[in-house]
Design brief:
With 391 residues, the chain is mostly helical. It folds into two domains: 3-198, MFS general substrate transporter like domains (Growth Hormone, Chain: A, Up-down Bundle); 201-385, MFS general substrate transporter like domains (Growth Hormone, Chain: A), CATH 1.20.1250. It has 17 helices and no strands. α9 (201-207) packs across α16 (329-360). The longest helix has 56 residues, at 130-185. One of its GO terms (molecular function) is transmembrane transporter activity. Keywords: Membrane, Transmembrane, Transmembrane helix. One of its GO terms (cellular component) is plasma membrane.
């Protein structure tokens, strides 16, 4: 297969895979009220559905390098698209909350595996264009996060809530078609992968590497704050006296900023000697945003939201660093699994801790103390995580 055609096909595959790794999550929450009128959604269901994404993303991070040890990244990507399509499609037509959760697990596990398998594919097929392809990967990932909550309710008004959910199953089904072609044609990678290293000694080496732990902590604490804001920002704003429509608009804004920055940060990270100044500036924005939301919410809510959005934009930067700081495709697979596995498990605790503190105390300072402390820790570890050279 000619190199140009092979590269173009892989680019299309990365685009459709990256876009479909988030809509099943962010396109659901605006529809929970509509679902509740037809299916009884208990408090336990709501707690579980909110915790499942980071939990399963974390588990996927640890199992995907093992899968990479036995199967090619192309085969795994096709399986990922099948899992997402089946899970999202079937859960949209069931009436049982338990079955809905089970099918969500299938879809989210596919998304989690997809999170980990894309970076080594980029490293294998575009070793000399890592920053550019990381921009494509991260940008489409953020786009797939931003669009679904904006269109979920309008789609539901036209096609009911089930139809709104099915849209993202159809989107993932297009990914099956693309990756089926890629899996059949099997274009040769430009950087050969020594698969035996991925699940064994390479992962063991990372466990003993301080910089790998630093990058995992930086990524995990970023997602820790991401999920807290995605879950609690509207509620915090309505508690401060703003109407729900404004709070919803601020949620869209806080997700839009990482989308925009996601198209810039990968190239910027490659050009800079170290990305730590970016992380330090973003940590400052996150801290000021939290302080403003806590102490002066009415003064400048849009400014606080913008600062919070900038603050959580270290996530696309962290994904880029996984690829940039890997010595090879197999090292990228292992590092991606280690960083995202541990990072997402850390992130899964965020909404639960924040909810417990808000509901257990009559004052807000314990909850804000936790997120500010997490920001300080992220700032501290970022110097090691962003240091130049391979991990």
């Amino acid at each position: 297969m000619k190199s140009a055609w092979a590269s173009g096909l892989i680019v299309i595959g990365i685009v459709v895979a990256a876009f479909n790794l988030r809509p099943g999550v962010t396109g659901l929450s605006p529809l929970l009220d509509a679902m509740g009128t037809e299916i009884h959604l208990s408090a336990v269901f709501l707690a579980i559905i909110g915790m499942l994404p980071p939990l399963l993303y974390g588990i996927s991070g640890f199992i995907t390098p093992r899968l990479y040890n036995r199967f090619s990244g192309l085969t795994i990507s096709l399986a990922v698209m099948i899992m997402i399509t089946a899970g999202l499609g079937l859960r949209a037509i069931v009436d049982s909350p338990a079955l809905f959760l089970a099918l969500s697990v299938l879809a989210l596990l596919g998304m989690g595996i997809g999170n980990v398998v894309v970076p080594p594919i980029v490293k294998s097929y575009f070793p000399d264009r890592v920053a550019l392809m990381s921009t494509v990967h991260v940008g489409l990932l953020q786009l797939g996060t931003f669009i679904p909550p904006l269109v979920a309710v309008p789609l539901a008004s036209q096609f009911e809530w089930r139809g709104s959910l099915l849209v993202w199953a159809v989107s993932a089904a297009l990914g099956i078609a693309v990756w089926a072609v890629i899996a059949v044609l099997r274009p040769a990678p430009r950087s050969q992968v020594s698969a035996t290293v991925v699940g064994g000694s390479e992962l063991l080496r990372l466990v003993k590497t301080r910089r790998a732990w630093a990058l995992m902590t930086m990524t995990g604490l970023t997602s820790f704050n991401n999920f807290i804001l995605f879950t609690w920002l509207p509620s915090l704003l309505t508690r401060a006296g703003f109407d729900p429509a404004f709070a919803g608009a601020m949620l869209a804004l806080v997700t839009a900023i990482p989308l925009v920055l996601g198209f810039v940060l990968p190239l910027l990270a490659q050009k800079m000697h170290t990305a730590s100044p970016i992380v330090a500036a973003f940590c400052a924005c996150l801290a000021v945003g939290y302080l403003g939301l806590w102490l002066m919410p009415q003064a400048a809510p849009v400014l606080w939201t913008v600062l919070l959005g900038i603050g959580i934009s270290t996530f696309p930067l962290a994904l880029t660093l996984i690829t940039l700081r890997s010595r090879s495709a197999e090292a990228s697979a292992a590092l991606s699994g280690f960083v995202q596995g541990g990072g997402y498990l850390m992130a899964a605790t965020g909404p639960l801790i924040f909810a417990f503190l808000i509901q257990s105390f009559d004052v807000m300072w314990p909850a804000y103390a936790v997120v500010l402390a997490s920001t300080a820790v992220k700032f501290t570890v970022s110097f090691s995580a962003c240091r130049p050279g391979s991990i």
